[in-house]
Every structure is written in structure tokens, then in C-alpha cells.
Specification:
Structural class: mainly alpha
Strand content: under 5%
Helix content: over 70%
Largest sheet: none
Radius of gyration: 17 Å
Number of helices: 2
Length: about 60
């Protein structure tokens, strides 16, 4: 897993931990939660793209053999 992906996962985890630990004022929880969800959706999209790339490379490699 690339550092970029790991960093994004860490950012999401940090937001959720802050919410769980009460470190974020109640007025900001909904906004922070939305931020975490958006980051997770973007990450999911990025991972889907990466998966597709790997599948294409695997097919190309299998055809070369």
C-alpha cells in the first residue's frame, strides 16, 4: 500500500478518533464526520481505480506467457 493511501486512511482514522474521544466540539462533529465520509469515498474511488489497473496488468501479463 502506498504511503499516499496509508496517509489518507490515517487522516480518516484521526478524525474518527477525535470524534470518539470528544476532542471535537459538538458543533463541529457533523462537519468533521462529513469530511471523513468524503475522504473515505475518495479513497474508495482511488482504490477501485488501482484495482482496475492491477487487473489490466495481470491480464496483459497472463497473455504474454
Amino acid at each position: 500500500m502506498s504511503n499516499k493511501i496509508s496517509e489518507k486512511i490515517k487522516e480518516i482514522d484521526e478524525i474518527l478518533i477525535q470524534i470518539e474521544n470528544g476532542e471535537i466540539p459538538i458543533e463541529e462533529i457533523a462537519e468533521k464526520y462529513k469530511e471523513a465520509i468524503l475522504k473515505a469515498q475518495n479513497l474508495e474511488s482511488e482504490l477501485d481505480s488501482l484495482k482496475n489497473e492491477i487487473e489490466i496488468l495481470s491480464k496483459n501479463f497472463a497473455q504474454e506467457e
